[in-house]
Amino acid sequence: MVHDVLHSQSLVSVLVGEPLTIDCLLDKTLALQHMNYSLTWYKSGRKMPVTQVKLSRIHQHENLLWFMPAILEDSGSYECVMWNLTSCNKIYFSVIVFKNTAGLCFNGDFLYAQEISASSNEKIVCPHLDYFRDEKNTLPIHWYKECNLIDNERFLNRDNDLIINSANVNDSGNYSCKMTYNYMEKEYNISRNIYVTVTETPLKKKTEILYPRNNTIEVELGSNVIVDCNVSSFKDNSIGISWRVNNTLVNFLFMGRVKEGNQ
């Protein structure tokens, strides 16, 4: 008996006119579990599988579903079916093909979100390019902010990343990365739009011993004394406090006459 296993639907979006690939086995755990399975792609509601002919605009190649390129009418649900003699797994993907907002190079409803810290060297990643970067497709990526080409010495293009030196809150905003991809002797544009938030890193207050000052305590000879250690630190209660004499923990000295408490 064949058992059907249904998996939740994943959302995938792409700009109209650009290539799209969907990996049925993106979940590597699932991939290992189904090494001996057969795999076929369908558009939901259709009995005929997606063709494996590479010249077709939409085709299957191994476990990947390719759109070369995607058009608005491709929006809809697709399913990857994996089966063997005992079980059948169906993984659903919802594809949205969108247009950019009029007058802009992006659509605010379809942005990747990335957060980086200020006052440091940070990077923005141009995401999901794995299947479009190979020995035949090594052209550089061009980066834009608010649709303007970035031309600033603080910004460095490195592989799929944009390095920002001394990032600050003014670097927040809409970024776009663009490249070209050659496939079957045709050239396609690929872009990713990212909203970047630069957050201020709170200043870390240096740990300070408020009492005893200068590691000095004045007491009367032979008296019983309880001394509190007061510490100010950005780490709040997460710091460890210990009492030492000549860099040796007091619990190992004085035969128990001097003991360390909670403070």
Structural class per helix/strand content? mainly beta
| Poorly predicted ranges | none
DSSP helix count?
1
Determine the CATH superfamily of the largest domain: Immunoglobulins
GO molecular function, one term: interleukin-1 receptor activity
Organism: Platysternon megacephalum (big-headed turtle)
Family: Belongs to the interleukin-1 receptor family.
Protein name: Histone H2A.J
Q: How would you characterize the overall build of this protein?
A:
The model has no long low-confidence stretch (mean pLDDT 84). This protein folds into 3 domains: 3-98, Immunoglobulin-like; 112-199, Immunoglobulins (Immunoglobulin-like, Sandwich), CATH 2.60.40.10; 208-256, no CATH class. The protein has one helix at residues 28-33, and strands at 3-15, 20-23, 38-43, 58-61, 64-67, 76-83, 87-98, 112-117, 122-125, 142-145, 148-149, 155-158, 161-164, 173-183, 186-199, 208-211, 230-232, 244-245, 248-249. With 263 residues, the chain is an all-beta fold. The longest helix is centred in the first third of the chain and has 6 residues, at 28-33. A 5-stranded mixed beta sheet has the order 8-15-14-10-11, with no helix packed on it. It has a 4-stranded mixed beta sheet with strand order 1-7-6-3, with no helix packed on it. A hairpin with a 2-residue loop joins β4 (58-61) and β5 (64-67).
Summary?
It contains one helix and 19 strands. The longest helix has 6 residues.
Q: What are the SSEs and their pairings?
A:
Elements: E1 3-15, E2 20-23, H1 28-33, E3 38-43, E4 58-61, E5 64-67, E6 76-83, E7 87-98, E8 112-117, E9 122-125, E10 142-145, E11 148-149, E12 155-158, E13 161-164, E14 173-183, E15 186-199, E16 208-211, E17 230-232, E18 244-245, E19 248-249
Parallel strand pairs: 1-7, 8-15
Antiparallel strand pairs: 2-5, 3-6, 4-5, 6-7, 9-13, 10-11, 10-14, 12-13, 14-15, 16-17, 18-19
Protein name: Histone H2A.J
Family: Belongs to the interleukin-1 receptor family.
InterPro entries: Ig-like_dom (IPR007110), Ig-like_dom_sf (IPR036179), Ig-like_fold (IPR013783), Ig_sub (IPR003599), IL-1_rcpt_fam (IPR015621), IL-1_rcpt_I/II-typ (IPR004074)
